[in-house]
Here is the input.
Amino acid sequence: MESKQLGPGFAAEILGVDLSAAMSDGDFDAIKQIWLENKVAVFRDQNLSDNDLLRFTERFGPLFVHVRSQFNDKTRPGIMLISNIKENGRDLGELGNGDLAWHSDQSYSAEPVFATLMYAIEIPTEGGGTWFCDTARAYENLPEATKARIDGLKQNFSIEVTVETQHVALTEEQRQLKPPVTHPLVRTHPELGRKSLYLSPAHSTGLADLPADEGAALLAELEDWAGRPEFTYLHEWRVGDVVMWDNTSTMHRRDAFSADERRLLKRTGFELPPERAVPF
Here is the structure.
């Protein structure tokens, strides 16, 4: 299994793989290992049916179904549409065409989704790229004094914040299904044991252990640190790209693009077993 590095010490393109074809256990294990080590894996020039995308996703773990179900596929709810396209005056998918702030998917959940996959169907000619941040390397390179300072701190998250930061609409039922949660600021990878900053500014309501002003200043300091060039990679999408990322060890954001252009991606995800799903 061949791969090439895309970002500074993380993010890899896996070469010569057709995700629509039958895959041996050996090839699958090699893909999983490359992804785990690099946090972000890219597969170019794919041509996938919905069943292909779901089959590949579910090979890693239980399929994730998003609580904001308005834009889930009606027959395959494990697929969510991300799009600015309108059909007959109605939004085809969610998240529009604006900037999206740094976040780790589902950090507002008690058991956040382990990994997210996105499959590009239509892509604008400019803009709309996705930035990824390696929060494991960002943690690893922190000064020891900062590591000691943040060890054991907890952070609060709420789905309510997404109304403003991600421009989404929520029903009362969805709000009730996702009450506020608290997770460690430093998260341990459930399979590899490595530590990472667990940052998700678009979902965070602040640190649980510090006064609001002090907590906000510390989070801003850590977010600025993690967003440095040596910890980030910009993925400029092409039609046929499949990108998968580890939400325990990365955060991501999106650049805006023109409302006159069309962007359509299909999103899936997979979960951890219940005994390892809660961040620790």
